[in-house]
Amino acid sequence: MANYKPAAGFDESSHSVLSVQHLIAKEPLSSIPQQFVRPNQEPPSTFSNTETGSLPTTPTIDLEQLLSDEASADIELEKLHSACKEWGLFQLVNHGVSISLLEKLKHEIEDFFQLPLEEKVKYRKPGDLEGYGCDQVISKDQKLDWGDRLYMTTNPLHSRKSHIIPELTSSFRSTLELYIVELQKLAVKVLDILGRRLKMEMGEMGELFEDGKQSVKITYYPPCTQPELVMGVVAHTDGTGITILNQVNGVNGLELKKDGIWIPVNVLSNALIVNLGDILEIMSNGMYKSVEHRAIVNSEKERISIAMFISPHLDAKIGPVTKLTNHQNRPIFKTIGMEKYVKNFISYNHEGRSHLEYMRLCD
Ligand code: OGA
Ligand code: NI
C-alpha cells in the first residue's frame, strides 16, 4: 500500500478502484470508466412511457397507530399486512427514533466520508467484504457499483471486526452504537406485530430476532455525470429478515420493482424505509414479498444511505411458519438452520437463480 496515490482513489499495485468518491474528486472524469458502465439497464419508470403521475406510491405505516389501544390499530395492521403482501416495502413514520439522533448520525457519517482516503483505507482489508471502499474486484469482467461503503457486522458482538467500530472516532462510535440499539428495538417491535399477523405465538417472532444477526452498511454515492450508465446498487433482494433503510441526507434514489416496472420510492422526511427480505418471504410461506430493489445515482447530488440488515440469531430455524401450512397449503420453502442459511447465502453461485429460488421446494 506504500505507493498508492491517495487522491486518485486507485490502487496501482492491485489495479483496482478503492473509492469512487476519490476517483472522481481530483478532476472531473471525461468519461465513465468502463468498469462502472452497465449497458442494457432497465430504465426507471420516469424514463419510460409510464406517466409518473399514475404510478402507485409506496405505502406509509404509522407505528404509533399500530401500537395504540384504539380500533384504528387494527386498520393500520391490515394496511401493514397488505403492504407486506403487495409491496414488500413501506415507509415507517412515528417510528420513535429521535430526530436529534438521526441528525447527529448524519453529521458523523458526513465527517467520516470527508476524511482523506489514507484515513479511510485503514478500515479496509483486501478480500474482506467488511470495511471501507467500493466493490472489491474479484473477476476481470466484473461491473462495479457506483458507491463507497462502510460495511460491518454489528451482532453477534464477538463477530465484530476489531479494525472497524473500535477504530471509529468516539463520537461516531457512540452515536452509531445508540442507533444500532434503537433500530434493533424498532425492528423487533415491527417483527412482533408481523409475527402476530402470521399466527405465530406471542413473542415468538421477536425471540427469533432477539440478539439476532445484524450488520450495517453505510453507503456514499457520489454524483455521476452520466447516471443512466451506472448503478448505485444493482437490482437484488436482501437475504435478511427485514432491512431498515435511512436515506441519511434526504436524497432519493431507491427504486423497487412492482408488477414488472421500476418505481422510485419518494421518501417522506424523517421516515425510515422497511423492506422485507428473503427470510420473511420464506417464513410467510410466500405470502409476503422479498422486494426486488436497486439504488440509482444522481447527476448533481451526493446521496448517503444507511442500511441495517436484521436477521434471526444463528441457532434459529428458517422455514415457513408451521401454523401457516397444512395439507392444502403445503410449505413451498425448505426449512434449514440459520447458520447454514448464512453459509449457503454467501457461497451461493447465483448463475441466474437467486438464493431464494434455491430455498424453494420443487413439487
Ligand atoms: C442494500 C440496498 C439501497 C440504498 O444495500 O441492500 O438495497 O438505497 N441499498 O442504499
Ligand atoms: Ni438491499
From TrEMBL:
One of its GO terms (molecular function) is metal ion binding. Residues 36-55 are annotated as: Disordered. Residues 212-312 form the Fe2OG dioxygenase domain. Keywords: Iron, Metal-binding, Oxidoreductase, Vitamin C. InterPro entries: DIOX_N, IPNS-like_FE2OG_OXY, IPNS-like_sf, Oxoglu/Fe-dep_dioxygenase_dom, Plant_2OG-oxidoreductases. SUPFAM superfamilies: Clavaminate synthase-like. The keyword Cell cycle does not apply. It comes from the Eukaryota. Gene3D superfamilies: B-lactam Antibiotic, Isopenicillin N Synthase, Chain (2.60.120.330). Belongs to the iron/ascorbate-dependent oxidoreductase family. PANTHER family: OXOGLUTARATE/IRON-DEPENDENT DIOXYGENASE. This is 2-oxoglutarate (2OG) and Fe(II)-dependent oxygenase superfamily protein. It comes from Quillaja saponaria (Soap bark tree). The lineage of its organism: Eukaryota, Viridiplantae, Streptophyta, Embryophyta, Tracheophyta.
